[in-house]
Amino acid sequence: RAKAQGRGRYAFFDVELRERVQRHMLLEQELRHAVPRGQLWVAYQPVVELASERIVGAEALLRWTHPEHGAVSPAEFIPLAEESDLINEVGGFMLRTVTREFAELRREHGAELQINANLSPRQLGDPRLHDTVRAALGDAGLPAGSLCLEVTENALMLDATSAVRMLRGMRKLGVFLAIDDFGTGYSSLAQLRRLPLDTLKIDRSFVAELSDSDDVQAIVTSIVAMAHAVGLTVVAEGVETAEQLDILRRIGCDHGQGFYFGKPAPLAEFASLRGIAAP
Length: 279
Ligand code: C2E
Ligand code: MG
Ligand code: MG
Ligand code: MG
Known about the structure:
Layout (H helix, E strand, L loop, with lengths): L6 H28 L5 E10 L4 E13 L3 E3 L1 H10 L3 H23 L4 E5 L2 H4 L4 H12 L6 E6 H6 L1 H14 L2 E7 L6 H4 L6 E4 L1 H6 L4 H16 L3 E4 L5 H10 L3 E2 L10 H5 L8
Parallel strand pairs: 2-4, 4-5, 5-6, 6-7, 7-8, 8-9
Antiparallel strand pairs: 1-2, 1-9, 2-3
Helix pairs in contact: 3-5, 5-7
The site of ligand C2E has 23 residues, from strand 2, helix 2 and strand 6.
């Protein structure tokens, strides 16, 4: 098809591809300095109990603000970190920062909030992860039960056996576990039952179609029913409208997260949200 559109098309692809490769190499170089230069920080997005609209926790999302390139999305730099071995440094920074900041927040506000942090596939495959998590919790003085680690279905496919072993070890520490972006991969709840999961997060692509599609409503209804049947708490991702909230409530989904409740924000901003501070 590209050929039929003539030579200009090739040239266009060429330039675009070269620019992409150049940005990739540049960012990978820059990422090496991001931790020591203090360019990484953590944003917190509220997780809300749908029935009461009370904030029950937050998801920690990594942010990279580069002095020249501005904000670089984690969707772009986490894969770079994964490819280049930087994921251990970046992931370690993330876990230390989140546990320290959240322990502070809980002390100041006396709030029983849970903090969710994401693990990438390579982190999950690293045998040192268990010690990294235990040390981060210990140093911060954060109880293991207030941390929930999110993993995607992909992360489990890399090396399922060692991933399952790692997750069981985490669960023994007392850390909770969530399956992230559920519905985007190919695994079923039946396959996931080998894992010591506590929470299932429904991917935001389903939530986005809830209002317009009866089929999607039916799918989400059955995901929630199945998850509840095996004792999982369900979180809907990407809630943006009051209508989506209504439907999710009716379906019986437990928790929600999304721009409707709050965008990812620096800790101080998260801490000032209504419903965080103890009365
Ligand atoms: P995720 O774990 O599924 O995180 C949710 C993403 O959805 C976040 O994007 C968040 O900003 C976005 N989001 C939240 N509410 C809404 C909404 O109402 N509408 C829309 N359109 N989007 C919403 P973000 O922060 O860009 O992160 C993207 C992905 O990068 C994350 O997806 C996660 O897989 C990865 N990531 C972020 N931080 C980390 C980290 O510290 N470690 C690892 N391994 N991965 C991370
Ligand atoms: Mg997540
Ligand atoms: Mg997610
Ligand atoms: Mg997602």
